[in-house]
Amino acid sequence: VVVSIICSPPQNYPLYIRSVPTENELKFHYTVHTSLDVVDEKISAMGKALVDQRELYLGLLYPTEDYKVYGYVTNSKVKFVMVVDSSNTALRDNEIRSMFRKLHNSYTDIMCNPFYNPGDRIQSRAFDTMVNSMMMQVC
Amino acid sequence: MADEALFLLLHNEMVAGLYRAAEQGEGENGRCTTKLESMGFRVGQGLIERFTKDTARFKDELDIMKFICKDFWTTVFKKQIDNLRTNHQGIYVLQDNKFRLLTQMSAGKQYLEHAPKYLAFTCGLIRGGLSNLGIKSIVTAEVSSMPACKYFSMYSIT
Global pTM? Predict the structure, then answer.
């Protein structure tokens, strides 16, 4: 069970959200929305602590009893949040990182599309295909 | 290198085409400059997304301006900005002594009055890049002697 969402700052509204399976979708939307606060917290904490780690990947945001939430923020302040089923212990850190890389690459391609207005909802078939294949891989 | 000439020629045609298609009085009241600047803005947004994909997170605004002066300018114009000055209160001056888009025009004062048209796109480019990195700014340019030019980036620290 994977949900990915991309939110754009500073309004923090989702540009794209997809989840599998489709029942109980609202619960995932809610989780992702609340985890945005955790992402903001992590970014501001990073700035003050002068942490050496200036990576874009934020790692595990917080675990709950059913699922884990991972975050990733680009240099252009776009946040990616992924919710994964806890029972899926086969997913390692590297795989999550590579999934975020793929998301970031596809997002960059969309930005360079002259017909896309930054701030609009993402409605690209290539993006959908990429997300679908990622989720099939995990489930 | 052929790829440099491609963008130079395309840019010159863009400016010429816009001014040719402009309606009565649009050239004087700055609408064409605005159109060029907005084009640069959108291109800058996409470009900066691609260039910052693999770089580490930026520490502060000075870091971002240095990135624009070195990596960004090198990738787009094949050279770095020659001089960066700031007053630490939100105003940055980027000076390029041999701006690629102006070198073919003149090497002194000739055609000075036409130079601003050719700087509008790059102003937008910088503004678009900065805006995607979280900095709302106003970018203007000034030419005193071709082909050197200065870009002023002003933003408020909130």
Answer: 0.83
